[in-house]
Amino acid sequence: MEEEQLHTLVTFIPADRILEPHDNLLLTHEELGRLYTIRTCGFKHTTVFDEQLLDQSGMSTDFPTVFYAIGWGGFWQVPEFGVKVLSQEFLATLKSNDTGVTFRMFNKDYSLTWSELSTCLGFHQDCELDIDQALQNFDLAKFWKLITCSNSLSVRRPVQIHNPTLRFMYFWILVTLFPGPSMDYIGYKELQILYAMVNKIKFSPIKWLVPFWISSIAPSMPLCFTSLITRIAESMGLLETNEVEYIQDDRSILGEQMFRSANLIKRDPKNGLKMIYGNHPIEVSLPNEDLWLYMLHH
Q1: Quick check: is 130 in a domain?
Q2: Would 200 be classed as within a structural domain?
Q3: DSSP letters for the chain
Q4: pTM (predicted TM-score)
Q5: Which domain holds residue 240?
Q6: Which of 2, 23, 110, 153 has the highest count of CB atoms within 10 angstroms of its CB?
Q7: Does 208 reside within a domain?
Q8: What is the Cα–Cα distance from 275 to 267, expressed in whole angstroms?
């Protein structure tokens, strides 16, 4: 009588990969080294605007108008929660090339074109992927003068921007697209996005986002875009068949106090909200429909 043999199913490990024991991730030597760096980072949900502030400032009306005009209507609100292990695996394996990106999620390899990844995040399919082409008419000096009436480019601060919507939009860009430690200096890319908003140019920033995500991997640095990684997985249908554990920390809310401490808004004696401009005597009551971004062109 032949003796029965019991066979145990084991995970197949390709020759070029190592089974990382903590979370059972299949990684190359290079990816494993990156993972060790990533694990020193802090993981945070993507920061969102305080809904009450959006309502009281009128941005709950003007934001959607602007975002739909540039093809970002399906992207701009980011309610998803971040997933630590999913973010670690994605970032450890993320690579870009001329046609798109490759990465791993739930121990499976994926390849998306730039267009597919852009659509996964919620940018409209009509958005131009060639950023240089889309923003070819952007002139830094001219645009800065348009929105600030200043000829000086040496210091570019949000308090110099006149239009309330563009002021709020700048901070949305920072916390949603390029979260980092400083909010007081306006970079070139941020101004290009504001330019696109003013001129209703439909373009996707996806070819900026992926390099930003990769460059954000540094020892002990916070990673504040995990919600976008969750959205990618969700758009691909991966959360329907895989269990995840969301980050337990509370989500950061960008609220009135930050804008008040930055000397951008204040409350009047009747508790009305006002946009202020440093030491300049002009104050603008909010909401103000006459100053909504596209009303200015009429």
Answers
A1: yes
A2: yes
A3: -PPP----------TT-EEETTTTEEE-HHHHHHHHHHTTSEE-PPPEE-HHHHHHHTHHHHHHHHHHHTT-TTTS---PPPBHHHHHHHHHH-EE-SSEEEEEETTEEEEEEHHHHHHHHT--TTSBS-HHHHTTT--HHHHHHHHH-----S---GGG---HHHHHHHHHHHHHTS--S--SS--HHHHHHHHHHHHT--B--HHHHHHHHHHT--TT-EE--HHHHHHHHHHTTGGGTS---B--SPPPEE-HHHHHHTTSEEE-TT--EEEEETTEEEEEEES-GGGSGGGGG-
A4: 0.92
A5: 42-261
A6: 110
A7: yes
A8: 9
Long-range contacts of 161-164 (CB under 8 A, 24+ apart): 161/186, 162/277, 163/291, 163/293, 163/296, 164/57, 164/58, 164/59, 164/275, 164/284, 164/286, 164/288, 164/291
Task: Calculate ∠ Cα 281-287-289, nearest 5°.
Answer: 100
CA separation, residue 32 to residues 20, 90, 244 (Å): 8, 12, 21
Q: Which of 255, 261, 252, 257 is nearest to 184 (CA)?
A: 261
Structure tokens at 26: 């299949």
pLDDT at 297 over 60: no
280 found inside a domain: no
For residues 197-221, give the mean pLDDT. 97
Residue 14 has pLDDT above 80, yes or no: no
Average pLDDT of the segment spanning 88-93: 97
State mean pLDDT over 69-97: 98
Residue 296: pLDDT band (50, 70, 90) is low
